[in-house]
Amino acid sequence: MILPEQFDQNELFVLTSLLIFYSLLFWLPNRFPLSLIILMMISSATVARLTDHLLSGSKMNLYSIMDLDKYELFDFFTYLLYAPFGYFLVYGYDKFKLQGISVLLYILVWALGATAFGEISLLFGVFKYKEWEASYSFTYYFIMISLMLLVYRFFKRSYKLHKVEIYNR
Amino acid sequence: MRLVLFINIMVVSLISFFVLKKRLSMLENIFLLIVLEFIFTSYCAILVVNFELWEVNSRIDLFITYKIFEMIILPLFFISYFNLITLFNLWWKKIVFTVFSLGFIYSLELLLVQWNVITYEGWYFWQSIISLSIILLVVHLIHLNFSKLLNKEGVIHR
To answer: Which chain regions cross the lipid bilayer (chain A) (predicted)?
Structure first.
């Protein structure tokens, strides 16, 4: 992978965010089995990777990440940032045992928060919008966060089902 | 025509994958899918965008054909490989099956080269085979660790 052209504010922003996010992740009391944590974290990172690959790739160049229009080492680090994002999302959802309309509010708050974080990243030069806008980010996060919660429920159900099958043998 | 054929290959692969009895658990299959998607999109981006060793045809139908190959067919075939390899108990049968699978997956890439969907720019067929073998080995090791974890947590029993 390509190293950054200059080690400046965008790289520092990514490294600082990584430090904060992962410190918070290890500081929070554990709620899930490790396999579920791994699944949720790599799902978030992969969704981000697939999105960037499709929207910021060669054909649809809607935005670029970090210094160059190439796949840099720090692009990879931004995907590592999305991993705790997915974990925190399901952590709150599970901890507060949300039901009914509060789920919608929770998703809205997260979508707004993620869009705001995206805009802060923009100020630090992590993203450079070409034909992309903050309103698109909000819609994107709104859909993706909803899907991530559905995926989490599916993972949890599959996990429990497998456990039950084994206990019933 | 090429796009239609690849869509057909994709649909056949998808149906075959979903109707066949899986040897791995649901969580393992999902884990493999996620990991493979990440690895293949990164691998192809490094080859196409970073080093320009592959040139992808800019015609929209051929470009979609390439995307189907990269994002659906390749990961799906690899997941199928990991499910089917468990059918063999003897080590030499596993090796024969691995060689056959790599040859089969490479033959699809070769088809894309023949159809000018991909053009190699200073890239050789053996480099593809080595890269695919390394990816297979890396994913195998990652999967092995994840399976051990599921086993430890009592989710799977092997």
So the answer is: 12-29, 36-56, 76-93, 105-126, 138-155
Residue B79 φ/ψ, nearest 5 degrees: -65, -45
Question: Which residues on chain A are in Cβ contact (under 8 Å) with B65?
Answer: none
Q: Which chain B residue has the Cα nearest residue A53?
A: B41
Is the distance from CB of B155 to CB of A165 less than 8 angstroms? no
Q: Hey, is A28 helix, strand or coil?
A: coil
User: B100 CB contacts (<8 Å, ≥6 apart)?
Assistant: none
Domain residue ranges in chain A: 9-167
Backbone angles phi, psi at B56, to 5 degrees: -95, 135
Q: Which helix (H) or strand (E) holds B56?
A: strand B54-56
Does residue B38 sit at the A interface (CB-CB below 8 Å)?
Answer: yes
Using an 8 Å Cβ cutoff, are B150 and B156 in contact?
A: yes
Determine, for residues A155 and B27 on separate chains, whether the beta-carbon distance falls below 8 Å: yes
At residue A128, what is the residue type? K
User: Which residues, 6 or more positions from A44, have their beta carbon under 8 angstroms from its beta carbon?
Assistant: A82, A83, A85, A86, A87, A89, A148
Q: What is the pLDDT along chain B (158 residues), one digit of tens a residue?
A: 778 888 888 898 889 888 888 889 999 999 999 999 999 999 999 999 999 999 999 899 899 999 999 999 999 999 999 999 999 989 999 999 999 999 999 999 999 999 999 999 999 999 999 999 999 999 999 999 999 999 999 888 77
